[in-house]
Design a protein that fits this description.
InterPro entries: YtzI-like. It comes from Pontibacillus yanchengensis. This is YtzI protein. By secondary structure, this protein is an all-alpha fold. Helices cover about 70% and strands about 0% of the residues. It has two helices and no strands. The longest helix is centred in the first third of the chain and has 27 residues. It starts with a helix and ends with a helix. The mean pLDDT is about 85.
Length: about 55
């Protein structure tokens, strides 16, 4: 009975540590945004609409 408790505690600590590592890695990720194009063509919306049809 005591051995099962120890194994469960080890698994619980391992899951906690892996969760904390994943969260930490996610917060360290540097998000980037693509720059906007200099000019948008006048017929951009019309072409985009026709592509969907």
């Amino acid at each position: 009975m005591f051995a099962i408790l120890i194994v469960c505690m080890i698994i619980m600590v391992a899951v906690l540590l892996l969760t904390m590592a994943a969260i930490s890695k996610g917060y360290q990720y540097n998000h980037t945004v693509d720059p906007l194009p200099d000019e948008i063509p006048a017929n951009h919306n019309e072409n985009h609409f026709n592509e969907k049809s």
